[in-house]
Design goal:
mainly alpha, 0% strand, 109 residues, 3 helices, Chorismate Mutase Domain, subunit A, elongated
Length: 109
């Protein structure tokens, strides 16, 4: 016969597994969306080269952050989302620079 604490632990472990499955599913979606975002960044980078714009555009980055942070529902989530998106923006910018270096006929600006 199971003790109450063993039964309780089993219940918590089951709940933990369910939350982990949910995170795994979200990670799959995020991964796919981040890949799509990077493909968009490639296209933007090529267009910026065509019209002579710099990769770094601080005003646009502020706009992106503001758009994203409107979905945060607490100060702690806002703070964390901002840190995450600053990383995404920085890595996307680095990706654009690297992508441009590897494209014949496109010069990094």
């Amino acid at each position: 016969m199971m003790s109450d604490s063993t039964s309780s632990n089993t219940s918590y472990r089951h709940e933990l597994d369910e939350w982990r499955k949910k995170i795994d599913a979200i990670d799959q979606q995020l991964s796919s969306l981040l890949c799509e975002r990077l493909h968009c960044a490639q296209n933007i980078s090529a267009l910026k080269s065509q019209i002579g714009e710099q990769v770094l555009q601080p005003e646009r980055e502020k706009e992106v952050l503001n758009n994203v942070l409107t979905h945060a529902d607490s100060p702690m989530i806002t703070y964390t989302m901002e840190k995450i998106y600053r990383c995404i923006i920085e890595e996307t910018r680095l990706y654009q620079d690297e992508w441009k270096k590897n494209q014949p006929g496109i010069h990094a600006s």
